[in-house]
Amino acid sequence: MFMLDEILSHKVQEVKEKQSLVPLKEIKEKIASARMPRDFYGALKKPGISLIAEVKRKSPSKGELRTDFDALSLARMYAKYGARAISVLADVKYFGGGAHVVERIANDSQVQVPVMYKEFIIDPYQIYEARAVGADAVLMIVRAIEPDRLPEMIETAHDLGMQALVECFTAEEAERAVTAGARIVGINNRDLQSFEVDLARSEDIRRVLPEGVVTVSESGLTCGADARKAEALGFDAMLVGEAILKAQDVPARVREFAYSYMGTQV
Ligand SMILES: O=P(O)(O)OC[C@@H](O)[C@@H](O)c1c[nH]c2ccccc12
């Protein structure tokens, strides 16, 4: 938990600074000219498990993920080889991303799939920021958000025409997410304390979710076999970063995940 705590206390400062530099009113003006949101929910709901491929330069646990990192060319490859959505890290300090990186990818003519703004969201201000740069969805980590603010945060995303991928670590959090109005729930397979990955644990959590909620298996999936396992467990989608980012042959690795649906082309 230590890392998440550190990131969150940094975010409190960061959001305060941003709010004093760029008032919400200005962000809202920018939203008026942002491109129309794309259907993230629909993209994940398609038959077979959907791949959300992640653009992430580094992570606190793994450091830099590839020497020739180029966010835009990776996103283009993801879209071209079958990812149904793209997750882009907006966090600068810990993951080497940025709102401008999301903006470039979300507005690139070669990337026609929905784009998720991956940030540690603690305040509605960040949700407006996401839409202003053209994002179609935002990540919300249940644990990072004050419990009584979660419904309002999810509603803010929906009101802006975006979807929220609401991330949980326990069954209790998953239930809380659904009660708060989540339509898409992500279960993080990586234990935040031990960094261990356990797909079976995520299946236990998935079981508490009602029909109609889109479920996403997040983190630690290494290959097509893991994708099929997640699919067999009933997940609608999976979120994959490292396994793709570390691959020498990115298109082949993307295909391996994206084409896992009974071996057919997506
Ligand atoms: O790189 P991986 O193990 O395939 O995981 C991707 C994604 O699930 C992970 O980056 C992630 C899941 N939830 C997060 C919250 C913040 C930052 C990162 C994450």
UniProtKB/TrEMBL annotation:
It comes from Xylanibacillus composti. It comes from the Bacteria. Keywords: Amino-acid biosynthesis, Aromatic amino acid biosynthesis, Decarboxylase, Lyase, Tryptophan biosynthesis. Gene3D superfamilies: Aldolase class I. NCBIfam families: PRK00278.2-4. It catalyses: 1-(2-carboxyphenylamino)-1-deoxy-D-ribulose 5-phosphate + H(+) = (1S,2R)-1-C-(indol-3-yl)glycerol 3-phosphate + CO2 + H2O. The keyword Lyase applies. It is an enzyme of class 4 (lyase). The keyword Amino-acid biosynthesis applies. PANTHER family: INDOLE-3-GLYCEROL-PHOSPHATE SYNTHASE, TRYPTOPHAN BIOSYNTHESIS PROTEIN. Pfam families: IGPS. Belongs to the TrpC family. Residues 4-256 form the Indole-3-glycerol phosphate synthase domain. InterPro entries: Aldolase_TIM, Indole-3-glycerol_P_synth, Indole-3-glycerol_P_synth_dom, Indole-3-GlycerolPSynthase_CS, RibuloseP-bd_barrel. GO terms for biological process: L-tryptophan biosynthetic process. GO terms for molecular function: indole-3-glycerol-phosphate synthase activity; phosphoribosylanthranilate isomerase activity. Its EC number is 4.1.1.48. Pathway: Amino-acid biosynthesis; L-tryptophan biosynthesis; L-tryptophan from chorismate: step 4/5. This is Indole-3-glycerol phosphate synthase. The gene is trpC_2.
